[in-house]
Amino acid sequence: MVNDKPLNGKVALVTGASRGIGRSIAMILAKKGASIAVNYPFEAELDNAKQTVDMVKDLGVNAMVTEADVSCLESCDAMISDVVSELGGLDVLVNNAGITVDKLLLRMSGDDWEKVISVNLTGCFNCTKSALRTLMKSKGRIINISSVIGIMGNPGQANYAASKAGIIALTKSTAKEMGSRGITCNAIAPGFIETPMTDALTDDVKSDYLSRIPLRRFGTSDDIGNLVAFLAGPDGSYINGATITVDGGLT
Description:
Layout: E1 11-14, H1 20-31, E2 35-40, H2 46-57, E3 63-67, H3 73-87, E4 92-95, H4 110-120, H5 122-138, E5 141-145, H6 149-152, H7 158-178, E6 184-190, H8 196-199, H9 203-212, H10 221-232, E7 243-246
Parallel strand pairs: 1-2, 1-4, 2-3, 4-5, 5-6, 6-7
């Protein structure tokens, strides 16, 4: 008989889970039985984070909100402590939090660069470092959300591309360091996924992307969430150090 709750009894922390891809990941992990910690970055996102928690609880599992600035290691330390205290442990860490500040390199300021690197890449490092000792006890899973932009680059997104490429390298190194401790670490590189972030793009940009995708359609947040759930579950136990593209064939 197929087990439709393979994550029953597990605890998952999803950063940037107040909306978009993060919310979908949280919902799908909850459907698989996991208790969910919903991270949000600042007060303006609190209502969205609470809405995600309510949606998760409606699925019959426990959930909590946890505010943390992932670019700050101390904030991440406090978040992990709160999750373990309230939900009883940590088995799955999904590093999903990310931002964009798009500008051509000639016009990109140092602050534009640092802001994206600090949230996307340093944030991934901070959350991973803060969670490692707890994940060693549970022989847990780390799943990092990168991007196809980190593989192929993109005009106007040098900072974003660098941050997402860095996540892929961080994933490979973490997998090699922590595999002997029973922890797996993998990256997912989404292509063009319909989210509030991509909704802001112009029709011309969307049309250009669509013309380059062999499947001739954009992905959904659930496409990412389903893969996260697979990697977090028993069927993904021997996948380690991989970067899996979910892009309809774009790359």
